[in-house]
Structure formats: C-alpha cells, structure tokens
Amino acid sequence: MEILKTVIPAAGIGSRFLPYTATVPKEMLPVLHKPALQYIVEEGLQSAINQFIVITSRNKEQLADHFSPSNELQALLEERGKKDALADLKKIIRQAHFTYVRQHEPLGLGHAVLMARNLIGKEHFGIMLPDDLIVNPANPGLAQLIRVARQEKGSVIAVQEVPASCISSYGIVGIKKQISPSIFQVSHVVEKPDPKDAPSNLAIIGRYVLSSKIFASLEEMGTYATGELQLTDAIGHMIQQNEKVFAYKIQGIRYDVGTPIGWVKAIIGMSLQDPAYAPHIKSFLADLDGAESFLYNSQKSIEHVR
Ligand code: G1P
User: Fold this and answer.
1) pLDDT at 127 over 70
2) Which site among 249, 267, 268, 279 is 20 to 30 Å from 32 CA-CA?
3) Listed range (197-206, 218-227, 265-274) with the worst mean pLDDT
4) Position 222 pLDDT exceeds 80
5) Do β-strands 253-256 and 132-135 pair in parallel, antiparallel, or remain unpaired?
6) Which residues, in sequence order, are CB contacts of 3 under 8 Å at separation 6+?
C-alpha cells in the first residue's frame, strides 16, 4: 500500500481564535519559533509523505508564502552570516511538493477533503488536521497510522481516550472488535455526541489514513441535511459500504492549537521539551510568586537597593 499524499484542510475561518484570525490564518499561529502548519508538514515528511495538498480559502496566501521565503530575505540572512536561520524551511522546500486548492464555501471538513478528489486517484492517503499537533520524535503520528493501515489493509483513524466532559467536542468511534491493545475495528462513528449517547470514550484526533472510497461516500452524503459535510459522517457511510476502518490509539502528546488555552498549553509543553527554552520556562513557572517575578502583586515588598 503506497501512501505518498496527505491532505491538510486549512480553509477554516478560525472562529475560536478571533480576533487574531480576522487577518492571520490560524495555521500561522507561532508555537515557539515555527508556525503550527510547519510542524504538520514536518510530521508528514518524517512519515515518508512528500505530497501535501493544502485546502485553503480567501486570505490564506500566507500559508504558501511561508514555504517560499523571498530571495531578498535569503540574501539578507546570508549577508549577515545567518543563513542557517532558514535551514529547517529549506529542507522542507527541497523535500515537499505542495498543491493548494481553494474551498470557495465553508461547507465543513468533509467538503474540504472532497476538494482533493482529483489529486488523489485510487490510492490510500493521509489527512492531517493542523489544529492537532502530535509530538512523538521517535515515532511520528502519521507514520504510526500508515503502519497500521498497511498491516490491517484498511483505513485508520487516530484516537485518544478522553474524559466524559470532553466527548461532545470530538468525533467518537464505536468498537466492533478489539484487534490489539491499541487497534480496534470500528463499527460506526458519531460526530460530537452527547456524552450519554457516546459509543465509547475514544475520540478522533486529527490524523487519518483513508481509502479513496471516502470520496464516493462524501459525494453521496452531500451537504443537504445540515449545510455542512462532516468527514465523520462519510467515514460512517464508508463502513456501511463494507470498507474496513480501524481506530488506533496514537502514541504521543497531542495539543489542540485551535483554541487559545490549547495553544498556550502547547507552547508551555513544547518549550519544556526543548533544551533551548526549558530552563527559562521552568524557572519562570517555579518563581511566579517569587521576589524576582515581574508579575504584579500588591502584597509583595521588594527591597530597593539604592
Ligand atoms: C474535527 C472532526 C472531529 C475530530 C476533531 C479532532 O472537529 O470533525 O471528528 O474529533 O476535528 O480535532 P473540529 O475540531 O474541527 O470541530
């Protein structure tokens, strides 16, 4: 099973991040010194994917611009002896091939994926939602799914166990059969159920490897019922058409950078894993109430040395 392409749906308006997203695409939010989207592309490349189909919308030109730095910037960095500053980006540009497809109307995640139909053909392909960062340097998220797809000869969705209070924010899978401690055959899927109606506590996380049969299901579902086409509903339809779909408990730390709180957690969590940032952030967090802290505290008296 050859899997070389991945779809990155990046057409959303980022309503959970307004007003920032009024002018800047949420995929360009910085997580430490890189935009969120760059982590997604790097995970794809580390998973032996080299063709990225990015679904965009109006005002998202910055996404393509990021992977095409200007000659002026490159010349300036060279002149200043800082040409290594773009080393990671240049590596991506050498290895990755990008295609940008416009989604003209905001008709949901399923509709965004359907935009890639003509570029995929008959093979299995990846989908990476840029809100979900998955950190596992030894075993990249999408590579884990590709391995399971080959082993089980089917489509695979990444899942993680979530507490009941979070169930209504995710697509939730129903289990037909447990194959191994981390692989399950899926019976059905429900998008954002009430916790009391949820078939399990396994929530869909933004990584998928799907059969190209998903496109027929997406077309058949249409957007008539709700005005939006959900990817989850089309996966359910594909299962009814006898396509084997597996849920795989993905290994790694997952951050949801689609909300301000998740984004702050991502920055703190990822900085604590990075030797260049960790000592500074650790002492900042340990010393929030300390005498050296810059946080205002009316109870604190600082002895001024004259
Ligand atoms: C989307 C999917 C949902 C999935 C989630 C993961 O929802 O529709 O099934 O659980 O991504 O992040 P969204 O968060 O875009 O509303």
Assistant:
1) yes
2) 249
3) 218-227
4) no
5) antiparallel
6) 48, 49, 123, 124, 125, 126, 146, 149, 209
| Largest pairwise CA distance in the chain | 79
Distance 140 CA to ligand 1 centre (A): 20
Pocket test for ligand 1, best of 186, 204, 229 (most atoms within 8 A of CB): 204
Residue pLDDT, tens place only, 51-92: 999 999 988 999 999 999 888 888 888 888 887 888 888 899
Question: Architecture of 5-286 per CATH?
Answer: Alpha-Beta Complex (3.90)
List the domain boundaries for the chain: 5-286
Rounded Cα gap, residues 208 and 9, in angstroms:
12
Shortest-distance Cα residue to atom 15 of ligand 1: 109
Ligand 1 site, residue 128, Cβ cutoff 6 A:
no
Which numbered atom of ligand 1 lies nearest the CA of 131?
12
Burial of 273 (0-12, 13-18, 19+ CB in 10 A): exposed
How high is the mean pLDDT of the chain? Answer: 92
Taken in order 102, 106, 110, 111, is the CA torsion positive or negative? negative
Looking from the CA of residue 203, the nearest atom of ligand 1 is 10
Nearest CA to ligand 1 atom 7: 170
The stretch 18-28 carries a mean pLDDT of 94
Report which ligand 1 atom has the smallest distance to the Cα of 205: 6
Q: How many A from CA of 293 to the centre of ligand 1?
A: 38
Distance 174 CA to ligand 1 centre (A): 16
CB atoms within 10 A of CB 159: 25
